[in-house]
Design brief:
- By secondary structure, this protein is an alpha/beta fold.
- The protein has 2 domains: about 290 residues, 7-stranded beta/alpha barrel; about 90 residues.
- Helix content is about 55%, strand content about 10%.
- It contains 19 helices and 10 strands.
- Strand 4, helix 6 and strand 5 form a beta-alpha-beta unit.
- It is globular.
Amino acid sequence: MKTICFYFQIHQPFRLKRYRFFDIGADHYYYDDFTNEQIMQRVAACSFLPANQMLLEMIEANKGKFKVAFSISGVALDQLEQYAPEVIESFQALAKTGCVEFLTETSAHSLASIKDEEEFRRQVEEQQKHIQRLFGQKPKTFRNTELIYSDEIGDIVYSLGYKTIITDGAKAVLGWKSPNFVYHSATNSNLKLLLKNNKLSDDMSFRFSNYDWSEYPLVADKFIDWIAQTPEGEQVINLFMNYETFGNLQPQESGIFEFMKALPYFAAQRGIEFLTPSEVALKLKSVGELSVPNPISWADEENDLSAWMGNDLQREALDKLYSVSERIHLCKDRRLLQDWKYLQISDHFFYMSTKQFTDGGLYKYFSPYDSPFDAFTNYMNVLADFLDRLEAQFPSDVDNEELNSLLTTIENQEKTIEKLEKELKKAQKPAAEKKTAEKKEAAAAKKTTKKTAKKAE
């Protein structure tokens, strides 16, 4: 029996406002709240809410046999909770069906897995807690930012308790192999890999409403036929895509919702089932190892990191940001930590890309800037202010070891003071109780005296 595994990504960045050189030191708030709220509410209305209602109806109509998975970035969850809480409620309704799996990723949708292992671990753990709090699930499957994966990243993720990772079925890694199997890491046979079927996923998410496409129009029975006609031994078709495919990337009038609703009917006719990633990993055995020495992603034709680290502007911005990671890990300032998180969002570096070939239009479509250099300048102005604030709290002329020792001393002193205050209160309690008792006795005696005097009169 063949299996379809649907996974949807949801991510929206905190976009930066126009931040000029003269704002450095004068304005410590960096975000374009109006644009962020406007975009999130628009996408929620045209995509997330109707798509969630569609999935809920599909699950109910198919008596639990239709299943999907989501990975919602931490920064997207922050915005949904702030700007569109009704979307969170609709996801909670989906979670209660038992047919929807929520995956873990980095809370900041960041490149920390490439730049800072300690930060990467912290963000994964933070995101896991966020998912548990909102949806009552402890995630079993991991997906990294933009499906970035390598053997080294896999080992770190496994050490965090995950035994399944989803990533891209990049040709450079697969070679002659098919993405329609479960594989395992070359460095850890216990870590299973589920790979995106790029052609079929992109047929839905990018080509569905393209009138110039040779297969247009794409209808549900034809799509299921393509899946059924894959070689007999191939186990699973992983359809990984942006959730905004429904209603935003592919508008409602294109027929994408009707197409999706019809898939379970035609799949059942051909004996094809739907499973979540963790169910696939549990049910299907690995057919062999997959070696990924260099990081891959699901971006562009190259499936590498060039979308975020392909030019000097991007690398300079990233290096400057992560140069203070050791120092920020000592910080307890809530505002600084929040800005640190939001400044790591991968989109900031995506906007700096100078790639203008096959994917150039995509970069321009998503970027709010006039040019990559404009994106770089705006980001570096914000970063300069952020670094100044960090410097004010943690001077760079004090080395990290000395600073850590000082902070530890201060923290220990605070704990000692707190302990002594508790002991003092404990010691003062009997005296306070005795004083209260004496007051009560005096009051009672006074009352008795008054009564006696009244009787004597």
